Each structure stands twice: as C-alpha cells, then as structure tokens.
Amino acid sequence: MSRSLRHLNSLRAFEAAARHSSFAKAASELNVSHSVVSQHVKNLEEWFGADLFTRHGNRVELTATGRALMPQVASGLQTLTDACEGILRKSQSGAVVVSAEPALASLWLRKQITEFCALYPRIEVDLRPAWTPERLGDGQADMIIHFATRMPASGVEKADLFPIDGYPAATPQLRDRIVGARGTIDWSAAALVHDNGRETWQKWFAAFEPESDAWRTGRVYSDLSLAIDAAVDGEGVILADDILCKQEMASNRLVRLDERVVRCVWYQVALPRNAARKPAAETLRNWLLDRTSEFRDR
Fold first, then answer.
1. Are 272 and 144 in the same domain?
2. Against a cut of 0.85, is the pTM above it?
3. Phi-psi category of 121—alpha, beta or left, where left has phi over 0 and alpha has psi -120 to 50?
C-alpha cells in the first residue's frame, strides 16, 4: 500500500492526461507545467516497466497497458475525492469574498454559488460584481473571477474557467426580416448590439465578413446584461453564446442566425499565491473548475 501511494500524484497526472489525451491540458487542469506531467508519467512507466502512452505530437494515446490501468485509477481517485468532499461539506467553514465581472456574476456565477452553498452550508460566499477586480488579500477579495485580460499580472495563481464563443443571434421576429431565403444575413438592415465597445463584433467581421464595415454601427452598452436585454427587446443582433445567454437561447427569445463562431474572451479564476489563501476559497475554486471542465475541453 505505502509503495503504491508514493505515486499518488503521478497517478493523478496519468488520469488527467488519459482523460484529455493531452499532457498540456492535464497540466492546465492540475496547475502544473507540461514537464511536470511528463515526468510523473515517466515515473509511472519506469515503475510499471511498460509504456502507458504513445506520443503523437501534442496528442497522446493510451497503450494497452494504459487502457487497462485507466478505469481503476479513475475509480480510485473518484472514491478518494468523494470521501474528502463528504467530510469537507460537513466540516469546512469560512467566508469567501469573490470579486467577479458583473455580467458573469449576474448571468451565471450567482446560481453556481447558490448551489455550492447548498452543498457546503458552513461556507459563506460574498459575491461582489466589479468591473475592475478588487485586490486579492489584505482584507479585500479572496478570489477573482474575471476576463483573462483584467487579471493581476503577478502574485496570483490563475486558472482558465471557460471561453466565451460568440455567434450572431436575434429575436425570431428580427431574424425573419433580415435573413434571406438562402440563410444569408442582410447586414445593411441589421442593427448591431454591442457590449463594452465594438471590438468583439469587429473581430467577428474581420474573420467572416472582411469586406463589411457593419460592425461600426449599432448601440454600445456598458454591460453584457444590458446588451442581452436590448437584443431580447428586438433592438438588434448580438453576439450570443451558449453559457451566459443559455436561458435566452433555450427559451427561443433569441435564435441563432449564423453558425460562424468567434472566440470573444476567456474567463479565469485567481487565488492569492501566498499563504493568505483561504481553504474555503480553494474548495470553491476547485468546485467551479470541476463544473466547467466540459467548456474548456470542447
């Protein structure tokens, strides 16, 4: 038993690499470097005396030995996770101040925190929407969830939460007026709805309609929530997505007009890198990363 548990971190690295078919994605999930994952796998391969992966550039594939090992390792790690989380949910306590981008806070994060607090009733989470993130530590925020471009440059441990991939969407009524029989959009008749500037629409047009300058038109709203409300009211076409606009798309208040997608932004989560980090904040961070893993892998 003791000899096997010496390789627990290596087994975690192996399981993540096998699940993602990628050392790089495993490294991102575990918040370590690519070389650390590679070394962990090498340690296991030397211990077993057999290759666990075949390498194909940036992609890895399980060998027969790896395929035999994977389900048992995954099951064992899940058993350990479930046991620890069961204790934490009953015993862990504390207060966590989360500074979050306003649209994310209202459209997605609030509901996630409500569910988290139901699972961890002794942890209190104070969600504070802020366009400019609060400082971590020093009695201010314990966690930042914001655009990757607005994260502190140093002193924090950052992890990707999920990307926002935008596509044109509008009300069914507006769609019927601006989309032709062949499915093409008459951009000259389509007012655009922008949030936080025109840059995202400019990126979409540069990628897919480079001859058009329609991105220069339309009203700019200072917050995505306002922009979504405007689009639902029929003011114009918005770059919607499947996460923050989930309710509007599912209810058919907004409908997709075009299959072409542009990467708008990444959201990240950050904790202090030093000893000021709260265990409850780390529990929340890990829970959110687990909840959003499918968005990072697509």
1. yes
2. no
3. alpha
